[in-house]
Amino acid sequence: MKIFLLGLMGSGKSFWAEKLSTTLGISHFDLDAEIERKEKKTIAEIFQTEGEEAFRKEEAEALRTFSNKEAFILSTGGGTPCFHGNMQWMNDHGTTIWLDEPLDIIEERLKTQRFHRPLIASVPEPELKDVLSQMLSKRNAVYSEAKFRLRGRDITEENFLKILSANE
């Protein structure tokens, strides 16, 4: 079972990867954490010193290392599906689930975390929701290629388990 969680930053991918890992008894990984471990730099440092394109190449390479793993849950970065054919690759190699949280919830979660996130670190708080809305509108077409989509209140452990049991 290979599960890829995708969605905007702040949608709960890391939270659900950890929770489902415990429930299902399989390993969970965070793609950004894997990149940081390998590069010995934070994502923010990679963006700052090497730029976004270099980061996106590293991200695609890190993602493809998961073809060698048997069973896992991977929380991807918000932009991961949108570059280097990553969405198609994830669909070809496992179950993709889009966590589609309302922007109000994502905005609230990110207000205090935005300084650690390169794409929104310099965004003033009053503009955060507009920036997130623009980001989502650019990514919607790619996110919608996910095999499954859970929205708002439907993002529950019970619904994840329904998806996974139906997909075996």
- Say what oligomer this is: single chain
Please provide the ordered H/E string of secondary-structure elements.
EHEHHHEHEHHEH
Strand order of the largest sheet: 2-3-1-4-5
**Spans with pLDDT under 50 lasting ≥5 residues?**
none
Task: Indicate the overall shape.
Answer: globular
Radius of gyration from CA coordinates: 15 Å
How is the main sheet built? 5 strands, parallel
Name of the top-level CATH class = Alpha Beta
Strand content: 5-15%
Could you tell me the number of beta strands? 5
- Secondary-structure-derived class: alpha/beta
Distance between the termini: 8 Å
Count of folded domains: 1
Indicate the CATH architecture: 3-Layer(aba) Sandwich
Helix content: 40-55%
| CATH homologous group name | P-loop containing nucleotide triphosphate hydrolases
User: Total number of helical segments?
Assistant: 8
Mean pLDDT: 92
What is the fold-level CATH name, i.e. the topology? Answer: Rossmann fold
Give me a quick take on this structure.
This protein has 168 residues and is an alpha/beta fold. It is built from 8 helices and 5 strands. The chain has a single domain, classed as P-loop containing nucleotide triphosphate hydrolases (Rossmann fold).
SSE layout and pairing:
Layout (H helix, E strand, L loop, with lengths): L1 E5 L6 H12 L2 E4 H9 L3 H8 L1 H13 L7 E4 L10 H8 L1 E6 L2 H8 L17 H16 L4 E4 L5 H10 L2
Helix pairs in contact: 2-4, 3-4, 6-7
